[in-house]
């Protein structure tokens, strides 16, 4: 199955961008505590693509993101991020972890928290320079948090916290943005702000890979969906993934009317 193309973009241009691939995985396998969690994972994410990584609990979605960040080792296969290994690319990947993974009682304000996105690039003991401050202020503007930049992060709502995490990732001006469950627990207006922002970022060429359990939202916002359950079960545009069988296989269920109705693929 091929990726869906933006009709406004010339085909040759889109094909070239997709084939270059900001992110390219071939035959990737990961073991955790002696157990194979991922195997034979092939995936290509091109410039300006937003790909949804979909699968049941325990399918290996977060593990895949962590492998891309070089936080868990692969036992087989190759990962190239803009032609570099995860370790080489580490300072240039924007990563938005699940909200509960961040330390919110740390006594810093919004701007300082966003600046931690650039720690790897600045170096642990160096002070942020003018370029770092400009990048952070631009990121805060993009998520509409400029007015709250001096607010301690412990005093923020869930939606505001999510926007801090996105600003922190964008402070790197990344070519690749990895989002782990970015919409979980957010109200509709905040989801819309982020959806619009992700659309703008892809129109600027950023590649986005996002895990989510919100299947209708994924079908609505992503140009491609990758169904994962230890390996890639199917990969294509939402229109191409109309076969109920691939969803049933990805989610490991024999027959689930609810799942198929949620997806709008029930016959
Ligand atoms: N540190 C770890 N050590 C051992 N096994 C782990 C570790 N982290 C995750 N696993 C296992 O790896 C598998 C994949 O977990 P992972 O968190 O990647 O799944 P997921 O698709 O992100 O799930 P969810 O949708 O619930 O977040 C699970 O079986 C999990 O128990």
UniProtKB/TrEMBL annotation:
Keywords: ATP-binding, Nucleotide-binding, Transport
A Pfam family assignment: ABC_tran
CDD domains: ABC_Metallic_Cations
Domain of life: Bacteria
Limits of the ABC transporter domain: 23-254
InterPro entries: AAA+_ATPase, ABC_transporter-like_ATP-bd, ABC_transporter-like_CS, ABC_trspt_anch-rpt_ATP-bd, Metal_Ion_Import_ABC, P-loop_NTPase
Similarity comment text for this entry: Belongs to the ABC transporter superfamily.
PANTHER family: IRON TRANSPORT SYSTEM ATP-BINDING PROTEIN HI_0361-RELATED (PTHR42734:SF5), METAL TRANSPORT SYSTEM ATP-BINDING PROTEIN TM_0124-RELATED (PTHR42734)
NCBIfam families (UniProt xref): anch_rpt_ABC (TIGR03771)
Protein name per UniProt: Anchored repeat-type ABC transporter ATP-binding subunit
